[in-house]
């Protein structure tokens, strides 16, 4: 067995520095590193501190802090979004509850646009239709049977002409001659008024109620049945019963 003291070992340089001296069999480089003093490495040259800037000395671009344009862009975009959102909420909550202000226009200010003119077509003038149940006193006509009955009574009481009465009768009428008709007209006091109510019975035949109002006398009524005829589009009185 080999003696422990004779065993060669290699120690770490830190151990060598602690124990002092190099052990037997240590590498030459280790001993040399232990015995020779280390030459300190030259340290890097340090920059001299800048002198303080005078109060009135303008700041150079190198002294200003670096700009951050991306922060400005983000801030502008955020401000735009907040503004748009505020405008939208204002329109939603206040637009439906408040009406648009009405601007009063002065009479001297001309309107910007001319209002549309309401054009109403002229009413078609039609001949008034007499109420068949009314008591008529008008001049009548020869367009209908009821119209010629009215014209016949008007010629007797208002025109007071036997010729006018006879002209409204058919040529072969059963009515008396004009001289007899005129004698009957002259027997009626001047100023007498009348009213005739006409009710149709059949075609061309009417039930007539004649009301005669003489001055100073109570009105009297005379029921009649009058037959009319249409000759060439004109109506005539044919008979009275």
TrEMBL record:
- Spans traversing the lipid bilayer: 71-90
Q: Which Pfam families match?
A: DUF8176 (PF26527)
Taxonomically, which superkingdom? Answer: Bacteria
Q: Where is the DUF8176 domain?
A: 136-240
Q: Where is this region: Disordered?
A: 1-67
Cross-referenced InterPro entries: DUF8176
Stretches with biased composition (Low complexity): 29-48
UniProt keyword list: Membrane, Transmembrane, Transmembrane helix
Under which name does UniProt file this protein? DUF8176 domain-containing protein
